[in-house]
Amino acid sequence: MDKRSLTDPTPFLPDLCRAKNVLYLALVSQLLAILLALNTSFIAGDFWISLSLNALFILWVAFTCAGIFCLFKQQINHFSTTLASLSMLLTINLSTLLMTWVTSSLLPALDLLIAPPSGQISLYLRNVGISSIFSIILLRFLYIQFQWQKQTKAEAEAQLDALQALIRPHFLFNSLNTIASLTRSNPPLAESLTEDLSELFRANMQTSQRLIPFKQELDLIRQYLNIEQNRLGSRLTIHLDLSTIPDDALIPPLSLQPLIENAVYHGIEPAAEGGVLSLTGKIKKNTVYLLIKNPICNDSTPNSRPGNNMAINNVRFRMEQCFPDQSKLLISSSGLEFQTQLVFPYHNNQP
Question: Which of 35, 37, 75, 119 has the most CB atoms within 10 Å of its CB?
Fold first, then answer.
């Protein structure tokens, strides 16, 4: 799996293994059945009989196609747009021919359905003609949607890169301020921390990966907290419990660090007595749960600082882009404690 993106390039055909898409397919099928029934009933009457027969026939065709596309989803997603379109057109028409044979020959032979009054050849030609016209309209709609999704994804990638670029200098400037405060009181330590920061950013800027292993993100957090620990001393107590999180779990780079920095900046540093910064994690049902806790500084404290949701919003957006509809960033406060929870699916770099 490419670490830059969890998802493959935008597929041309919708994923018909998802219940939501199958529901949409059923609704479109019913709309087509209503249109055909209205046309038939206008000529010969019997709207409800025509609707029931058309709906049953079209649903059989639709669900047969959905089963085929779901079964061969992985192969079809690697097809070119032209090949995927041809495969869809061929599948719909062949399914229509199959269901025409079932309803006009097989079921009447078993006395399960009345044979249609029209000739066999004309029935096949009519059904294939309708399915061909519908297929062409559907393919046109899917192509327009495909182009729109590609454009949306490209814009999201550009915005994602911009947000990531914003977070990096933010971390750099805050870390440099931390080191600057040590240059007079402890020059050797300031020099050591500057070297650590240099190594940290050298490794971080050498990659444009969209996703990195959790171990790499954790190393980043440890180095940041090491800088803050040396600056704040006994005022900062750190509690880490992440032993259950797999090292190879993929996460967007600089996802946890801004949240940890917020906890230190808004919770620990303004309080004269400091406090405990807690970062715990667990994995349940292939989902990673990370929880950050920090004390809430009383608003009446002179050193208290107003909140800034930019880092939280940035991280939430980046998680959503990397894990669509699968990630959450939740914030809450209880008493004198502020909590930030990050939830995302467990993926690793295995194919």
Answer: 37
CA distance 51 to 274: 72
129-148 pLDDT tens trace: 989 998 899 889 888 888 88
One-letter amino acid for residue 303 of the chain: N
Distance of CA 289 to the CA centre of its chain: 16
| Bridge partners of residue 241, in order along the sequence | 280
CB-side exposure of 286: number of CA atoms within 13 Å? 3
Give the three-class secondary structure for 212.
Answer: strand
Structural domains of the chain ordered from first start: 19-151 (no CATH), 181-345 (3.30.565.10)
Collapsing DSSP states into helix, strand and coil, what is residue 26? helix
Q: Positive or negative, the Cα torsion across 39, 42, 44, 46?
A: positive
The full DSSP string for 70-127 is HHTHHHHHTS-HHHHHHHHHHHHHHHHHHHHHIIIIIHHHTTSSPPPSS-HHHHHHHH
Smallest CA-to-CA distance from 289 within 326, 338, 239 is with: 326
Q: What is the mean pLDDT of the chain?
A: 81
* Beta carbons within 8 Å of 88's beta carbon, 6+ residues apart: 13, 65, 69, 135, 138, 139
Is the CB of residue 127 less than 8 Å from the CB of residue 58?
A: no
Is the pLDDT higher at 306 or at 291?
291
Q: Of 55-59, 106-110, 131-135, 205-209, which gets the smallest average pLDDT?
A: 205-209
Nearest CA to 321 among 166, 207, 155?
Answer: 155
The alpha carbon of 286 is separated from its chain's Cα centroid by a whole number of angstroms, namely 15
Q: Which of 16-25, 88-97, 143-152 has the highest mean pLDDT?
A: 88-97
Among 116, 128, 171, 347, residue whose Cα is nearest residue 245: 347
Burial of 117 per CB tally in 10 Å (0-12, 13-18, 19+): exposed
- Which residue has tokens 């050298």? 202
Residues, the chain, total?
A: 351
Classify 337 as helix, strand or coil.
strand
> Tokens 């000739």 map to which residue?
119
